[in-house]
Design goal:
single chain; 463 residues; mainly beta; Jelly Rolls; Immunoglobulin-like; 2 domains; eight-stranded mixed β-sheet; 32 strands; disordered N terminus
Length: 463
């Protein structure tokens, strides 16, 4: 527990935002050998007997990602237990929407057999099968296999077999690989690769603070007065702008002052809906060590955070998770300092606070890849792909939150000049994947897939 009355005023403002607007599954650990899956596999059987003359796994593969997937890079594996060590099997394709000539079938042997699998049928595709657009599926792939001696084969002990699957449905016992990496399904004895979760992605491809798409896409630009920051300062949506940088659109948050409260303009943007809880939060943010113009020295705070409203002093269902950079110090610090902080609760009247924080007293100016993951066990903060801090289960969120960015001044004591100056924070994108923990590499891959597909916004997260 630590007392930080000045820092707490920032959270009060974000809570006021959620109050003004009126506005869970357990997170699934990512498999060690899995990418952030862009595919899902559906299965049904047309030979449902525990023993049969042939197995008939009918399959479909669906693109659940944001970019096209070349089918020639895709392999599906149906796992089974051989009826004997010497048994030989034959494959046939009866019909496929993509054409049986463009569907391949080969048998393989598992390096580590299990009680339900020591072989697999691998379905592949030729280049002529084409690609799957986002949201599209392959259509039916009706295949079968049998013993070369046409003896009965036993299916009831096969890993991928589902006797009750008389209609297509998602089936994690058949795996999908893209370029050799498992992106869907449960390998025999292996981990489950989670299906894609609901997502918020925004590339901030807007024209101005007045662009109607901002509100349509669920963003609120703050205008109301109050903390955090300099009493009497204005929260100005006009200080939020958009520009091109390195081939992408970026959002700019400007904070300006001439050394008085009346001249101080601060900025904040947040989601309108309080609907984000566990999962992965990510943003690429450019912190600034110096003002864009004018003299330096103000106690500026640059942020990316998730937060909900405080119902009462020391309420235990409050939650807040912060990345905060103070390039000129503040809150008793005399030079640049970077914080990650996980909040359990606080009392706005006394300044009493329950949180866990980690600091780095060094420059964090420039572009930074920020990721925070929240599951059932802990909160993990990453900076530029490296684990920065891990905070304990005592600080896990009980209720959903908003996602926000703001830039503001803690006070006017850092620089007493009346010369105008402007500080700038930039944001390249924001991503949230509900109820799933992604690695920083998986975050980068997911963002890259959106951009490859030319998709600048998606929000499938429901309250």
């Amino acid at each position: 527990m630590r007392r930080i009355p000045h820092r707490r005023s920032r959270s009060l403002a974000a809570c006021a935002l959620t109050l003004a607007l009126g506005g869970a599954l357990a997170a699934v650990p990512a498999a060690a050998n899995a990418a952030d899956g862009p595919l899902a596999v559906q299965y049904r059987t047309s030979s449902s007997g525990n023993a049969a003359s042939q197995a008939a796994p009918w399959l479909k593969v669906r693109n659940t990602g944001a970019a096209p997937v070349a089918l020639s890079t895709v392999k599906l594996r149906y796992y089974f237990k051989a009826d004997s060590a010497s048994a030989v099997y034959r494959y046939s394709c009866d019909w496929a929407v993509k054409g049986c000539a463009n569907v391949t079938g080969t048998f393989g042997t598992l390096a580590t057999p299990t009680a339900t699998a020591d072989r697999y049928l691998e379905i592949g595709f030729t280049a002529a099968a084409g690609s799957l657009a986002p949201g599209a599926d392959s259509g039916d792939i009706q295949v079968r296999f049998h013993r070369s001696d046409w003896q009965q084969l036993v299916q009831s002990d096969d890993h991928s077999f589902g006797a009750g699957q008389s209609a297509y449905g998602d089936w994690t016992k058949v795996t999908a690989r893209v370029s050799g990496t498992v992106v869907w399904g449960t390998e025999p004895g292996g981990p489950v690769v989670p299906p894609p979760g609901p997502v918020l992605f925004d590339d901030f491809d807007y024209t101005a603070h007045s662009d109607p798409r901002l509100a349509a896409n669920g963003w609120f630009l703050r205008t109301y007065s109050g903390g955090p920051g300099v009493p009497g300062a204005t929260w100005s949506p006009q200080n939020i702008s958009f520009a091109a940088a390195d081939g992408n659109s970026v959002m700019k948050l400007e904070t300006s002052t001439s050394g008085t409260a009346a001249s101080t303009r601060q900025t904040e943007i947040a989601t309108s809906a309080m609907k984000f809880r566990k999962g992965t939060y990510a943003a690429r943010v450019k912190f600034s060590d110096a003002p864009a113009q004018g003299p330096d020295g103000d106690h500026v705070v640059q942020t990316f955070f998730a937060i909900n409203d405080l119902k009462a002093p020391m309420a235990d269902d409050y939650a807040e998770y912060d990345f905060e950079y103070l390039p000129n110090g503040g809150w008793g610090e005399t030079s640049n300092i970077f914080y990650t902080t996980s909040w359990e609760t606080y009392d706005p009247n006394t300044g009493q606070a329950v949180n866990q924080h980690t600091v780095a007293r060094s420059s964090h100016g420039g572009w930074r890849d920020l990721v925070v993951t929240i599951d059932d066990n802990d909160i993990r903060y990453y900076v530029d792909g490296t684990l920065f801090s891990t905070h304990g289960a005592a600080y896990l969120p009980e209720r959903p939150m908003v996602i926000a960015f703001n830039q503001w001044l803690t006070d006017l004591t850092g620089q007493t000049s009346t010369t105008p100056r402007t500080y700038e924070q930039q944001v390249d994108y924001v991503l949230h994947v509900k109820d799933q923990v992604l690695t920083p590499a998986q975050v980068a891959a997911k963002v890259g897939a959106y951009r490859t597909a030319g998709r600048t916004f998606e929000d499938t997260v429901t309250p």
